[in-house]
Design goal:
α3 packs across α4, α10 crosses α12 and α18 crosses α22. The protein is built from 24 helices and 20 strands. By secondary structure, the chain is of the alpha/beta class. The strands form six sheets. Strands 2-3-1-4-5 form a five-stranded mixed beta sheet. Strands 13-12-16-14-15 form a five-stranded mixed beta sheet, with helices on both faces. A four-stranded parallel beta sheet has the order 10-9-8-11, with helices on both faces. The protein is 39% helix and 15% strand.
């Protein structure tokens, strides 16, 4: 138990020395993706092999360390998920990709006992080998401040966090700053909520602090319901103390003594690491009663959500914590006035709280020097889709889509052309090649009819059907609608029915106009922010790809050849040898003809399964 500031500083110095004594460190990525790929087996194997070599192996930072030990650590997500499982060797900074358990002996003998780099485990691009993580193009153009520790430290050790300067910001807030000064610093930094709305965090904290109600709460939104988004999960898994520290600072600044983390139950690893971090912080006297002898009190509980998308909305989230059905309510009153249990509540998401310690420690001016004038700092994005390098990235606000997609993401796969990017999750909009030089910040995206949202970026190539994309996201939104308000419940259902008709070849031009009319009605009349943005994917795809909608309804043709019911399969008579193989394989007897004469396909009977396409040795069967 740390009783005062001197205890904290002394403990930090002890573990800093212990960390320095680890002459080599092996960081095995233990994010969810790499764990699924066998990272824990690799971790166990490396630990066993290092001990067998007679080297002192430390899996936990020891208070009285052995000289010249090897530290083997389970780190958080490195972000380069497509190349996992990943193993980093420090201090050299070598990154090994797609590591398997059978590679461990060579890693220990070559890189730990010796000082040799293993070329075959390196990342290669355009015939160039990259030894260090920082040299790889995927990382080189990033600015990782919130994700800085993810992949660099043992995610399960408060001692390692302290050794790297952890809890300095909390120490500063407790002993050097007044609550008003803390809020002024956050406000001056320009930090805006990273959960989607972009509301200024300092303004929100100030509004909570000025409430006369003596009981207040801090709530962290870790629900992250967007498909493909895992920014918040990676922070909770890879650097949980950073986020906890941000919540503690918010609580002390606003006068709250209790905090809740709302995290979906589908994130068991994040929950486990948060529980460990909270227990460690309590044991050290950084959470709970009389923090570091100051008389301040703040504690944190975890609330597991059932995975409903609507619970990412503030009022639905707080209702869920209260044990009620997670549904939004009419505002006002706003959450800052009557939030959790009817009390004033600071509600921010994981990434927002993770920015706070850095702002307090380095100052608002430092933070404002990153990003754009009205969108300071960085933003983490989950980069997915038809792109070379998928994973988790962090870039300064204002970085262009072109830099993200082509410099960091490596461009399209298989030489395909870029077509569009879906930004902001299922409620976001689609942007096209004309937006590639658009800076990624709150205001620029809003002007273009899109939004940052939680930070999902789905990149699509020329083989993507934009009508099907609109149907896919509307299907997700409709199924996730909580059903409380009629415009969302019935409006999204009708929009989905129309889109299903269009991709099935049953649409009309009037259907396109009806989609826009419904979108306008839903956006202007639904109860919560999720409903208001539900139609964005449809509106943006009609705006930028109306010709594709018209091809579906007028020509009954899918230009991208994606929509199954609009596919046309035919046999080119001049190429067909009449071997009958396709007719024998057809499951519905749609193909007929005479041996050694050209065969034909009955379009009404054909189910477009594609079996004939794969079987034809003469390339006579075509699809369009």
């Amino acid at each position: 138990m740390l009783r005062n500031r001197a205890d904290l500083q002394h403990t930090r110095e002890i573990y800093q020395q212990a960390l320095d004594n680890q002459k080599k460190k092996i960081l095995v990525c233990a994010g969810t993706g790499c764990v699924a790929g066998g990272a824990l087996e690799i971790y166990d194997k490396l630990t066993e092999l290092i001990a067998a070599q007679g080297l002192h192996c430390e899996v936990k930072l020891e208070k009285e360390p052995h000289d010249h030990s090897v530290g083997v650590k389970k780190s958080g997500c490195h972000g380069f998920c497509e190349m996992g499982p990943l193993v980093r060797i420090d201090p050299a900074g070598w990154l090994y990709i797609k590591v398997q358990a059978e590679d461990c002996l060579e890693i220990v003998e070559a890189s730990i006992v010796g000082d040799n780099f293993i070329d075959r485990l390196a990342y290669k691009q355009v015939a160039k080998t990259y030894q260090t993580q920082e040299e790889i193009p995927f990382y080189k153009k990033q600015t990782r401040i919130v994700l800085d520790h993810c992949g660099q430290i043992d995610a399960t050790s408060i001692n390692e966090y302290l050794a790297l300067g952890g809890y300095r910001a909390l120490e500063k807030v407790l002993f050097e700053m007044s609550p008003d000064e803390v809020i002024q610093e956050i406000d001056a930094s320009g930090l805006r909520g990273r959960g989607g709305g972009g509301y200024p965090a300092g303004r929100k904290w100030s509004q909570v602090k000025k409430q006369s109600e003596p009981v207040k709460y801090v709530v962290c939104n870790g629900d992250e319901g967007d498909p493909g988004a895992f920014m918040d999960r990676s922070i909770m898994e890879g650097d949980p103390h950073r986020m906890l520290q941000g919540m503690m600072i918010a609580g002390i600044a606003c006068g709250a003594e209790a905090g809740y983390i709302y995290v979906r139950a589908e994130y068991p690893l994040a929950i486990s690491r948060l529980e460990t971090a909270i227990e460690e912080a309590r044991a050290y006297g950084l959470l709970g009663e009389n923090i570091l002898g100051t008389g301040k009190k703040f504690d944190i509980k975890i609330n597991k959500g059932a995975g409903a998308f609507v619970c990412g909305e503030g009022s639905a989230l707080t209702a869920s914590i209260e044990g009620k059905r997670g549904m939004p309510r009419v505002k006002p009153p706003r959450t800052v006035e009557q939030g959790l249990f009817g009390k004033p509540t600071v509600l921010n998401n994981v990434e927002t709280f993770a920015n706070v310690p850095l702002i307090i420690q380095k100052g608002a001016d430092w933070y404002k020097s990153i990003g754009t004038e009205n969108s300071s700092g960085t933003k983490a994005f989950a980069l997915t889709g038809n792109i070379q390098n998928t994973g988790l990235i962090e870039v300064p606000m204002g970085t262009t889509l072109r830099e993200v997609i082509f410099d960091i993401g490596g461009g399209m796969r298989d030489g395909a052309a870029f077509k569009a990017v879906q930004i902001g999750g299922p409620s976001g909009g689609c942007l096209t090649s004309e937006h590639l030089d658009l800076p990624l910040d709150f205001d620029s995206l809003k002007k273009a009819g899109a939004m940052i949202g939680s930070g999902g970026l789905v990149v699509m190539d020329e083989h993507t059907c934009m009508v099907e994309i609109a149907r896919f996201f509307m299907n997700f939104t409709q199924h996730e609608s909580c059903g409380k308000c009629v415009p969302c419940r019935e409006g999204t259902k009708r929009m989905l029915q129309i889109l299903e008709g269009i991709v099935a070849g049953q649409g009309t031009l009037e259907d396109i106009d009806m989609l826009l009319e419904l979108a306008d009605m839903i956006t202007s009349t639904t109860l919560c922010g999720l409903g208001k943005s539900a139609a964005f994917p449809v509106v943006s795809t009609i705006k930028y790809f109306r010709d594709e909608y018209e091809s579906h309804v007028l020509e009954k043709r899918c230009p991208a050849k994606v929509c199954q019911k609009l596919k046309r399969i035919h046999i080119e008579a001049e190429l067909c040898r009449g071997c009958s193989k396709c007719a024998r394989l057809c499951p519905v007897n749609a193909i007929s003809g005479t041996i050694k004469q050209p065969f034909t396909i009955d379009a009404d009977t054909c189910v477009k399964c594609g079996a004939c396409l794969e079987s034809c040795a003469f390339n006579a069967i075509k699809e369009d």
